[in-house]
């Protein structure tokens, strides 16, 4: 009975993976399309006016958008694409984080708890910056978001890479050795860039590092020491995830061993009887 249930769970898991890949193809396609359009609009605006205007506040960015896109429909389309992309990213991150925490850390947290946790983590800094510096603080937070994302990129790649390369979890959907090698090289590059980035934040003297340190008139929404701690903690956490074994893989291995032992013991009991 345990062996049969193990095989049934394994087959259903393979089918659920296939259905999950097909269901998320549409969302992933539109997510990256929306993100590309938003980044294209921002980069086009910056490239067109970088030599004339200096953007210091969120109001300056809005005025620049109104100057570049004279049509009144363009800001609405930009806002719709931004909201649509952010919601799809949120839904995808909630589902993928649920899979990662279940197979990597061995914890089963509900999707609602994941969704609420992500919303709280996104809302608290926004409220803090808005209350501290107003619209300028929110604008500085928007600028710092890519910086914070670079901190979490190496530690975000490792769980996906470990799960995608696990034969016991992915089965026939396991990535090939060629893709696995490329993914590992990409992780090493991102980790190396993150180390250089952390060193630049600690010892750099460029204009943007001076802004982070508070040496200019630009409001500081996150203290420089907090950014240093975040960068060091992210590097340490990424290295910790590299050496952490998959909990679900170890559990499946134990279940498979018990199943094989029961199959060996069954003929012996029949012969004895």
From TrEMBL:
<feature type="transmembrane region" description="Helical">
    <location>
        <begin position="139"/>
        <end position="161"/>
    </location>
</feature>
<keyword id="KW-1133">Transmembrane helix</keyword>
<feature type="transmembrane region" description="Helical">
    <location>
        <begin position="104"/>
        <end position="127"/>
    </location>
</feature>
<feature type="transmembrane region" description="Helical">
    <location>
        <begin position="182"/>
        <end position="202"/>
    </location>
</feature>
<dbReference type="GO" id="GO:0034755">
    <property type="term" value="P:iron ion transmembrane transport"/>
</dbReference>
<dbReference type="GO" id="GO:0005886">
    <property type="term" value="C:plasma membrane"/>
</dbReference>
<dbReference type="InterPro" id="IPR001046">
    <property type="entry name" value="NRAMP_fam"/>
</dbReference>
<dbReference type="GO" id="GO:0005384">
    <property type="term" value="F:manganese ion transmembrane transporter activity"/>
</dbReference>
<protein>
    <submittedName>
        <fullName>Uncharacterized protein</fullName>
    </submittedName>
</protein>
<keyword id="KW-0472">Membrane</keyword>
<dbReference type="Pfam" id="PF01566">
    <property type="entry name" value="Nramp"/>
</dbReference>
<feature type="transmembrane region" description="Helical">
    <location>
        <begin position="25"/>
        <end position="48"/>
    </location>
</feature>
<comment type="similarity">
    <text>Belongs to the NRAMP (TC 2.A.55) family.</text>
</comment>
<feature type="region of interest" description="Disordered">
    <location>
        <begin position="252"/>
        <end position="273"/>
    </location>
</feature>
<keyword id="KW-0812">Transmembrane</keyword>
<dbReference type="GO" id="GO:0015086">
    <property type="term" value="F:cadmium ion transmembrane transporter activity"/>
</dbReference>
<feature type="transmembrane region" description="Helical">
    <location>
        <begin position="68"/>
        <end position="92"/>
    </location>
</feature>
<feature type="transmembrane region" description="Helical">
    <location>
        <begin position="222"/>
        <end position="243"/>
    </location>
</feature>
């Amino acid at each position: 009975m345990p062996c049969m249930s193990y095989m049934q769970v394994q087959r259903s898991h393979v089918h659920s993976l296939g259905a999950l890949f097909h269901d998320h193809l549409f969302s992933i396609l539109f997510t990256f399309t929306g993100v590309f359009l938003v980044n294209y609009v921002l980069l086009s605006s910056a490239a067109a006016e970088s030599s004339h205007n200096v953007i210091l506040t969120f109001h300056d960015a809005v005025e620049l958008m109104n100057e570049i896109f004279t049509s009144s429909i363009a800001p609405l389309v930009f806002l719709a694409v931004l909201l649509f992309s952010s919601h799809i990213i949120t839904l995808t991150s909630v589902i993928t984080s649920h899979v990662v925490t279940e197979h990597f850390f061995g914890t089963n947290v509900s999707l609602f708890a994941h969704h609420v946790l992500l919303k709280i983590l996104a809302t608290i800094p926004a409220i803090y910056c808005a209350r501290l510096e107003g619209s300028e603080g929110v604008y500085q937070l928007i600028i710092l978001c890519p910086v914070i994302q670079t901190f979490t990129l190496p530690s975000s790649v490792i769980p996906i890479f470990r799960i995608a390369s696990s034969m016991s979890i992915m089965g026939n959907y396991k990535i090939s050795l060629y893709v696995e090698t490329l993914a590992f090289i990409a992780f090493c590059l991102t980790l190396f860039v993150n180390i250089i980035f952390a060193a630049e934040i600690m010892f750099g003297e460029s204009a943007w590092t001076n802004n982070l340190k508070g040496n200019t008139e630009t409001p500081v929404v996150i203290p420089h020491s907090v950014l240093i701690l975040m960068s060091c903690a992210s590097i340490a956490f990424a290295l910790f995830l590299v050496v952490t074994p998959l909990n679900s893989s170890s559990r499946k291995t134990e279940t498979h061993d018990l199943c094989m032992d029961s199959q060996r013991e069954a003929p012996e009991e029949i012969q004895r009887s």
